[in-house]
């Protein structure tokens, strides 16, 4: 089998030829109308924004910082501009049930006019009604009424007085009422003198007094009825005056708002209420109570007078109150007080008839916000409920505004994990968010995409208000975008990372006094970022150079190989070599994964070791017993080990331990392997190669060191300049391997050997050596079993 | 002109205030206190235990019919006397309180008899009598009580029949003049005082040709100007109660001042007065 050739420089880096970009600077580039490479998401947005059926709200999935919000906002703004402007909504006093304010829908812009009309009406009522009560006409009529009452009241009493006087009986007033006494010549007779009257006279007088008392009693008892009648007549008069005063202004308003029956009905209710409270307006000194007049005002909840198209609202603090609206309270003399004018709209109200953009994580982190949002979307109407009522903490009487019908499209933005978690755990979620708009992380890199990507960068530069980029710098940025995507055929679409890089490059360009961003500034920005994050990496390298962490990069060693791992710290990640060692002796066909035994290995790693052990058994002892007791360990690894990217390295080191053939320490290995010995792709290859390169480079001159990686990973390579230069000079090599045998040959310098028809490996080959050694193990294991059996008198026991 | 300045020639008699404990009489007490302060006059409160009432309570069959409820209950002489004593005490306190701020001299005459007679006995010609237009009889809806009617007609001096009225904007004090020059002068002075007290302009109603003489009118104007009271003179077309009522309405009259000697002040005139829901000053 031929050993795979080391990769050339052009295979480990996908350059962007500047001639692919036909511009001098990004200043001349037009902006993209639609973001490129996001067709799937755009189609989802288009569909989601357009479909009218209930529950078709959107969830835009993508990593944070990918520019979801900006893109969705841009799309919705242009989409909504062609939609009709939604209605205005206002709350008015409910004269039948004062704690349930009514809602009125008005054509956009009419809300303001209605509010102003009602304010004017209230002001007019304040002055016109007292004026009507002050008028001579009213005063005269009320005086007539009062006089009539007095007359009628007196008539009864005078009649009795007259009758009493006619019978020589005086009717006297006491502080509390009336009394009767016999009189003569207009004066009450002395009681002593009265005693001299004859019994007949006395009887006559006393019976007359009694009769008069009864009549008086009857007359007095008629008075409340009389007073009530008068009150009614005064009230009727007041009503008449108010009706006459209101006739003009309310009539005009009725005519003006005739097209909206709800407004007309409200005006009628206002008229009735004013008439009912006519007396309250009579106070000329202070005018009508403010509370009374406030009832005629309008709380304009949603004003779309200046809205163009459908509204697109982004709620940056999506708590319960901000979403559903709230009822505020005013403190008045130590009491909390509220009315319909203190109802405040929420973002759902403002977005009604349009689109509401929300950050899913923020909604979920606010108490009750998610539940309230779902409740409202399910019910199709916005009902304002205070949080304390929802929690049952307050039972005081409050306002319960009439709900407002809802027609809004909610667009949630969130990462994929959140979407899948919600879909899994919240049974309502998929009923309400039926449209999934998945954001593309990476874009295809081909000849067509260069120009589009450059225009996207130009748009970013403009949005950031930074210097334009030169053609060279865009080419460098495109190369870096591939590195960010870890793929020669992809470009990163991560908005935040690219924008940060542009801003930093602009900073360095400013330091240089350049009026545009050059390639060197992009390079500097990348290097500076890397340097800023390099403290841990440098410490790790120092530990290796000082021999604290043992890594050999020269010579050969049995049962020892350099594996490669990647560490992710915050936004940066870097690779470093790890020594993997193996031991082998005869045994029961088991490979001990020390990491797993120590509970430091993850399940994928364990799986990889199991695959490895089955590969050994299948390949080298397909029919016989695999007598092997081997162990594998990641030396000086104190954290967990996870992943299968070390399985090629583990296979090599295990076979070295079995055969005693040394492995080249100048090569590091990465790649996973299946049960047939095929090498499979792994992640983080760039970081791994660069990590090993740095370790080799710091030990002195490079002497043919290199890395073995899965051939299927070659197109993921976007290695840095230092590695590329060393590869060009041949000081460092990268070998693509497709099968385990290729790795064995590279690591041992021996031929691996293909089995013949009988399954025998050729003499002198590495595989033959393995097979023979395993046979030896089996025999030595068997002889030991035999001797143990003898020792134990034939009983079974483990050696 | 300050409140304490008086038109020349004002008689400085006492102010008698007739008190019976009813709401109108207590309201009149406030006015009396104000006027006493301005005139720096002595105030004499008068409370008369009405003898006919005491007599009537002496009858075994005497009953009191409640003015509001119509309930009939026995009227006992002892209880009535106790009630009257309490009333007198209450009145004394009210009088003291009303005059405490002005520091005016005050006394309460507590006597027994017929109210009008007792008051007439106490009155001097230079005294001002202030009383509510109705006393307890107001509860029956009467506009002017019998005592008020009698005293307005028979008192030797000035009588202010007080009634509470709602303040109205742009209202005026109206004084009605007649042919009697001396009587007119007294009425004008009283009217000027009321105008200053109420901060209302004055309307002088004259009935020609006796009073409509331009020379007399010019003299009047000059005198009013001297007192600093804004005034206008108006002709009364007919000397009838109806005509007066009409003019009073047109002038938005808040108070009326008229002389007892005028032809409009007779039995018919007093009936007319009872129709007016405003304070009326009757001058000698």
Averaged pLDDT of chain A, please?
89
Return Rg of chain A in Å: 48 Å
Oligomer: heterodimer
Characterize the biggest β-sheet of chain B. Answer: 10 strands, mixed
- The first-level CATH class name of the largest domain in chain A: Alpha Beta
| Outline of chain B | globular
Kindly estimate the percentage of residues of chain B that lie in beta strands according to DSSP. 15-25%
CATH architecture of the largest domain in chain B: 3-Layer(aba) Sandwich
Overall number of domains of chain B? 2
Q: What class do helices, strands and sheet pairing of chain A give?
A: alpha/beta
Q: What share of the residues of chain B lie within helices?
A: 40-55%
Q: Count helical runs of chain A.
A: 27
Number of discrete helical segments of chain B = 9
Explained architecture:
The complex is a heterodimer of chains A (about 800) and B (about 280). A 7-stranded mixed beta sheet of chain A has the order 23-24-22-21-26-29-30, with helices on both faces. Chain A is about 45% helix and about 15% strand. Chain A has about 800 residues and is an alpha/beta fold. Chain A has 4 domains: about 15-35 and about 440-530, Orthogonal Bundle (Helicase, Ruva Protein, domain 3); about 40-85 and about 305-440, P-loop containing nucleotide triphosphate hydrolases (Rossmann fold); about 130-280; about 550-785, Ribosomal Protein S5, domain 2, CATH 3.30.230. With about 280 residues, chain B is α/β, with parallel strands linked by helices. Chain B has 2 domains: about 15-160, Rossmann fold (3-Layer(aba) Sandwich); about 170-260, Rossmann fold (3-Layer(aba) Sandwich), CATH 3.40.50. Chain B has 9 helices and 12 strands. Chain B has helices at about 25-40, 50-55, 75-100, 115-120, 145-155, 180-200, 215-225, 240-250, 265-275, and strands spanning about 15-20, 45-50, 65, 70-75, 105-115, 130, 160, 170-175, 200-205, 230-235, 255-260, 280-284. In chain B, helix 1 (about 25-40) runs parallel beside helix 3 and helix 2 (about 50-55) packs antiparallel against helix 3. Classes of the chains: A alpha/beta (about 800), B alpha/beta (about 280). The interface of A and B includes residues 191 and 220 of A.
